[in-house]
């Protein structure tokens, strides 16, 4: 017997992460130098971390909080570091003096990307496991991470933060206030020409001002975040990695691009995973719609403000192929717009159960439909479906429906 629970739900793609992390990540309630930058205000960048060690006399690299127990940083910062005395500061505004919102955590594990190359700095990414969980506040919040498929176009304004040198060989003046600066993304081909052909791999991204220079990350900023803003949320798109001198004309900074590492991060953080956000074109949801053309008198539209993919979605196998869209405003129900009920946890769906599929997909392999289509299909036996499809395609999170001799089915 099927048990149902009624909820309002829109299922799509475009955003990945755990529900708890996506609810809080990337929000900086107090946000209104790096080289050529300026002092930040307390709480402006609540994910910013300071990595400190007695071996370096204190601060040596930056990082970012991505959930309640993990810090994201550059591999070159921690590749040869001793965990003895390694500490992470969060909620910190100045390197010295009073920091009332500051907390300190030790590190129990350093996870370097297995393909990190210390010579080329390819795959310059690492995770730090903290010795105890962090309680979020207005001054300490995880950042959202760019999801697989995110695009970062040349000219996109991004922000860099850190306590590094303010010029080549010039340390940040006491008390060492956290610096911030805005830098535009630089075309990868242009960056390769400027810094040496082949030095910029597909796992890197460049940012900075080409002609005037003057604004850049520098020594001590390594491992810190490169972020962009999407709506109300800040999304980390890169990790400060390397550069030639600091803030020189035609020598942009180089950052580890985060989008290729979504799968690696997810395999390392299996509990309470970070919030991954895929930045693409805006999405609009239509309800009460029957045709793509002509009059739809009962139609309402809502802008999508957040898309949430299942954290274990696999784009290759399509396992866990489920997502949620949060609309920017509530929907008023009517006889043309009502929520669907969902099958409960212990529901069973026997073979040959008559089901219905609906959509505006192609009515054959190439011809799209302009009107909402409906079709009745029976549930197929799981073993028969496995036999009909290639071995290993069907997972325990999937079910098959249709006619073995062809007929109505869903299409592209």
TrEMBL record:
Keyword Disulfide bond: yes
A GO term, aspect molecular function: serine-type endopeptidase activity
Alphabetical UniProt keywords: Disulfide bond, Hydrolase, Protease, Serine protease, Signal
Domain Peptidase S1, chain residue ranges per copy: 34-270, 283-412
GO biological process, one term: proteolysis
UniProt xrefs under InterPro entries: Peptidase_S1_PA, Peptidase_S1_PA_chymotrypsin, Peptidase_S1A, Trypsin_dom, TRYPSIN_HIS, TRYPSIN_SER
Superkingdom of origin: Eukaryota
Signal peptide (from-to): 1-20
Protein name: Serine protease 27-like
Organism: Clarias magur
Gene behind this protein: prss60.2
